[in-house]
Design brief:
CATH superfamily of one domain: Peptide methionine sulfoxide reductase
Shape: globular
Number of strands: 9
CATH architecture of one domain: Beta Complex
Radius of gyration: 15 Å
Oligomer: single chain
CATH topology of one domain: Metal Binding Protein, Guanine Nucleotide Exchange Factor, Chain A
Helix content: 10-25%
Structural class: alpha+beta
Strand content: 25-35%
Length: 143
């Protein structure tokens, strides 16, 4: 069972998504399946943490699965769990690809390709940086 089977997706009007997301690029990427330009996202803070959906806050990927693929977008070897994302066949732009969306709200995240590191399962989740928020792991102080 995937997360999308467990509960209904979050649904909002375009006006509600635009107001929440705050900028047109994030709206167009997450709600209209656009793609940000390669190498246009500034990146994320160093250290361990979790990448969450910018639309609903659902955890999607961890820093432990992020790697540098040199493709121009954040790349990961696996989602946090099998129910975090949904996959759909995407036939746009004259290609056959597998689109990745948030299982919780349906936000377009990017695509998954079979050219990732073989030692990590061989998949590359190629994700638009604007579709993600990064939350660093809490640092526990030893008193």
């Amino acid at each position: 069972m995937t997360a999308s089977d467990a509960k209904p997706k979050i649904e909002k009007s375009d006006a509600e998504w635009r107001a929440q997301l705050g900028d047109e690029l994030t709206f167009m990427v997450t709600r209209r399946a656009a793609t940000e330009r390669p190498f246009s996202h500034p990146g994320f803070a160093p250290g361990a943490g979790t990448f969450a959906c910018v639309c609903c806050g659902a955890p999607l990927f961890t820093k432990a699965t992020k790697y540098e693929s040199h493709c121009g977008w954040p790349s990961f070897t696996a989602p946090v769990d099998g129910g975090a994302i949904d996959e759909h066949i995407d036939l746009s732009h004259g290609m056959r690809r597998v689109e990745v969306t948030c299982a919780n709200c349906g936000a377009h995240l990017g695509h998954v390709f079979p050219d990732g590191p073989p030692e990590a399962g061989g998949l590359r989740y190629c994700i638009n940086g604007v579709s993600l928020d990064f939350a660093p792991d809490a640092v526990v102080a030893n008193d």
